[in-house]
């Protein structure tokens, strides 16, 4: 069998922070790819055909011919390793800047993603109102934004002097902080400037429409607001957190 790349890319994704990450790379590199929208509310991602692509049963996943890649960070690295020959959005493997970029990418994968994901769950999707759960994960998410702020208050990009997959991965989550968690991004002025810089990129605007859900950004924000109100309405109904854990 020949080695990758195979120039036969299919992205399995949904309109979520992790789902956005590969589209950001694909659009910046102007690659040709098919999109298979996955309805995570219907549990498409738990079906056998999908588990054969991603045994973890989550989006996103990527196929390049018969080769599969899962975990959003691995997908981003696959795409830059294989298709970013000029190193526009990554650094040369083995250099100091490569490991700096990798550090910020892993910071997102192991920190902001899981912590903010839990904060979103408690704030907008939980079957109970848990003040403890909301506070625990919101505080940790804000602490992690503070770590980004230390870097972005004095630099335009997370690693070195260019926009890389590390910025793309962190951006995908940080942009969701205000609508989901009412985080006031002005408390993190360097992060706020960096978000604006990223949002101006035409490739970012295209990626945000992948997959095409037929819903505008305003409609999505309204849905999130409704979800938060549902959780709030559980306060004091006996569906708030148990007194003993
Ligand atoms: N570490 C994984 C996380 C993937 C993940 O949590 N995806 C969510 C959407 S953002 C998902 O598929 N949720 C549906 C489920 O858990 O079944 C990655 O970065 O790819």
From TrEMBL:
UniProt similarity note: Belongs to the GST superfamily.
SUPFAM superfamilies tied to this protein: GST C-terminal domain-like (SSF47616), Thioredoxin-like (SSF52833)
Region (Disordered): 226-245
Family matches, as CDD domains: GST_N_Ure2p_like (cd03048)
Record-annotated GST C-terminal domain positions: 94-224
GST N-terminal domain boundaries: 6-87
Signal sequence, start to end: none
Protein name: Glutathione S-transferase
């Amino acid at each position: 069998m020949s080695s990758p790349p195979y120039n036969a890319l299919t992205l399995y994704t949904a309109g979520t922070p992790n789902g956005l990450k590969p589209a950001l790379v694909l659009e910046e590199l102007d690659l040709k790819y098919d999109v298979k929208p996955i309805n995570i509310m219907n549990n498409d991602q738990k079906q056998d055909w999908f588990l054969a692509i991603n045994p973890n049963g989550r989006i996103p996943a990527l196929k390049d011919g018969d080769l599969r890649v899962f975990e959003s960070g691995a997908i981003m690295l696959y795409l830059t390793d294989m298709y970013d020959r000029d190193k526009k959005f990554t650094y040369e493997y083995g250099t100091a800047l490569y490991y700096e970029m990798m550090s910020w990418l892993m910071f997102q994968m192991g920190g902001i993603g899981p912590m903010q994901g839990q904060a979103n769950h408690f704030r907008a999707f939980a079957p109970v109102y848990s003040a403890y759960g909301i506070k625990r994960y919101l505080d940790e998410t804000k602490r992690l934004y503070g770590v980004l702020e230390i870097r972005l208050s004095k630099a335009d990009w997370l690693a070195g002097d260019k926009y890389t997959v590390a910025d793309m991965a962190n951006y995908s989550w940080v942009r969701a902080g205000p609508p989901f968690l009412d985080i006031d991004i002005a408390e993190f002025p360097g992060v706020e400037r960096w978000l604006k810089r990223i949002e101006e990129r035409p490739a970012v605007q295209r990626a945000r429409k992948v997959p095409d859900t037929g819903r505008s950004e305003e409609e999505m924000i309204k849905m999130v607001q409704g979800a938060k109100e549902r959780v709030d309405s559980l306060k004091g109904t006996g569906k708030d957190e148990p007194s003993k854990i």
